[in-house]
Design a protein that fits this description.
Aspartate Aminotransferase, domain 2, Aspartate Aminotransferase, domain 1, 14 strands, about 40% helix
């Protein structure tokens, strides 16, 4: 084993297949150090130790706006984007500003477990809609919306990770995104597009974002540097209609505390404007593609036919379905005895009972030999426990 410090409380020397963050050897430490050195030489560096602009670092805003206009053809200006403290902050801020306790939200089944945690913190009612290999099932979404209409209720927003979804790894095609947009217009709900994995794609061109397809109407799109630089930087961005961004910028949180992480945002802006981020992304995609291929190769070799799993074209995650006779909590207990840990499926559903035969594997963090070894342990246990 090559782990020195185990994440999230797992003992050193274990194999944490749940760890959904960048491996240590993929962090661009030299480039970030160069950006810090450049900032430190600026005579006005002390300004970065004060409260920042509520909208966020102006140089980083300009960089992101230009990139989105150039690479995606988005018709946006500075008024459509703000800097946030990672997408987690964005999800919490949107929940705080758009909802009140007891409001209804739409989520995928399964969906990102930590977002579900935030929604529960806000005392929101979650209505989950099944997904298949193309994302949310439109017929089921329509059925849920009709049921809510009969109840005299309307969802405040639909939360979705459209590209390389966490936890399933699937990507929603354009026609299904358009169907969701049409339903959002008919029923009046906002689409919260948590697009944090879009830059970790393994070759295929992605469908246009919800924001692009809707021309910005009633869509809030989140992005982050946590997956492509480092989560500890706590820097991301939010794209939306100018009036919505103005409301967020004028919130009590920002008028009291200033913009998100001024010093860190300046480092990221310097790093990006130097061209280092784009070069790092090209290299990073190949590294994650290799890890994905190792994980899928190991799964193909060791898993019985009764186990299903996704084959993501980007992102960090593979979603496994276990045989009906095997519960994921029993597998987790057996795997922990061999120092292998994964993310059980129950946490990714509004109703945990729906995830008792699923689990999520991450291929982003572990050394290749540990990634392969952990999957081999799981395959061995599943074969033994499914007899």
């Amino acid at each position: 084993m090559n782990l020195e410090i185990s994440p999230q409380g797992v003992i050193a020397g274990s194999i944490p297949l749940f760890a959904g963050h960048p491996a240590r050897d993929l962090l661009p430490l030299d480039g970030i150090q160069a950006a810090i050195d450049a900032i430190w030489q600026d005579e006005s560096v002390t300004r970065l130790f004060n409260y920042g602009d509520e909208q966020g670092n102006p140089e980083l805003i300009d960089f992101l706006v230009e990139r989105l206009r150039r690479d995606e053809g988005l018709e946006i200006g500075r008024e459509n984007l703000m800097i946030i403290g990672g997408s987690t902050w964005g999800v919490d801020m949107i929940s705080d500003q758009l909802t009140r306790a007891g409001d209804v939200l739409l989520v995928d089944a399964p969906s990102y477990r930590d977002a579900l945690h935030i929604f529960r913190d806000h005392r929101l009612e979650l209505r989950d809609v099944p997904i298949d290999d193309g994302g949310i099932v439109i017929a089921e979404l329509e059925r849920t919306l009709r049921e809510l209409e009969v109840e005299g209720r309307a969802p405040k927003f639909y939360y979705v990770v459209p590209n390389f979804q966490n936890p399933s790894g699937i990507t929603m095609p354009e026609e299904r995104r358009m169907a969701v947009i049409e339903l959002s217009r008919r029923y009046g709900f906002v689409i919260v597009e948590d697009d944090v994995y879009c830059d970790i794609r393994f070759g295929d061109q992605l469908p246009p974002s919800f924001y692009a397809l809707a021309r910005g109407e009633n869509v809030l799109r989140l992005g982050t540097f946590s997956k492509t630089l480092a989560p500890g930087l706590r820097i991301g961005w939010l794209v939306g209609a100018a009036d919505r961004i103005a409301d967020f910028v004028g919130s009590g949180l920002l008028t009291m505390g200033g913009g998100a992480n001024p010093f860190t945002a300046a480092i990221v802006a310097q790093y990006c404007r130097s061209g280092a981020w784009e070069a790092h992304l090209r290299w990073l995609r190949e590294q994650y593609r290799a890890r994905r291929d190792i994980a899928l190769g190991a799964l193909d070799s060791v898993m019985p036919a009764s186990v299903t799993y996704t084959r993501p074209r980007g992102g960090y995650f593979i979603w496994l379905g276990l045989p009906p006779s095997l519960r994921v909590d029993d597998l987790a207990a057996a795997a922990s005895e061999r120092n292998v840990y994964f993310a059980p499926g129950a946490g990714f559903f509004a109703d945990p009972a729906d995830g008792l035969h699923h689990l999520r594997l991450s291929f982003s963090f572990l050394p290749l030999e540990d990634l392969r070894a952990g999957i081999e342990v799981l395959g061995d246990l599943i074969r033994q426990m499914s007899r």
